[in-house]
Design goal:
Layout (H helix, E strand, L loop, with lengths): L2 H23 L1 H11 L7 H28 L3 H36 L8 H38 L1
């Protein structure tokens, strides 16, 4: 990476950290997060299965990426890109698992009598829609990282 690429990478990370700090203190984001997490508990098997698979996959993927990119290729930059791709894939897995669990919760609640008259239906439906959008955003980020990796390989080959 040349000087300007490092500069813009650092600026991007700084902006990302500032956005995360802003979201941490932004009350509507906290309310949105609470709506999504409200229905997730210990008895939600789909989410916990995705979580366990995600943790094992995260550790395994990063161990493999370390061995390939740091030990064999000695390329920290490739390790960072590979790590971002792996982390994004795990985020897709976790948000997809949470989406599946919310759909299951919504279906179970719809089978109860009188559920359609309460506000819980709208809350759960909103949580499903938000989780689908979040999963889609992670998929787009994963696709962009894949394009960056492919273009870097083509540039290195030329």
């Amino acid at each position: 990476m040349n000087g300007w690429q490092w500069f813009w990478t650092l600026v991007g990370f700084l902006v990302f950290i500032i956005v995360l700090i802003f979201l941490y203190f932004y009350q509507p984001f906290e309310d949105l997060f609470t709506v999504i997490i409200t229905q997730i508990a210990y008895e939600n098997v789909a989410f916990w299965a995705a979580l366990v698979i995600g943790i094992i996959g995260f550790c395994g993927y990063h161990w493999r990426a370390y061995r390939v990119h740091i030990v064999q290729q000695r390329s920290v930059e490739s390790m960072v890109l590979s790590s971002l791709r792996g982390s994004t894939f795990i985020a897709i897995l976790l948000s997809g698992g949470a989406t599946l669990q919310m759909v299951l919760t919504l279906c179970i609640d719809l089978l109860r009598k009188g559920y359609m008259s309460g506000s819980g239906f709208g809350q759960n439906l909103g949580a499903v829609i938000i989780l689908v959008i979040l999963t889609g955003a992670f998929c787009i980020i994963f696709w962009l990282l894949k394009i960056v990796k492919t273009s870097r390989q083509q540039t290195a080959a030329n």
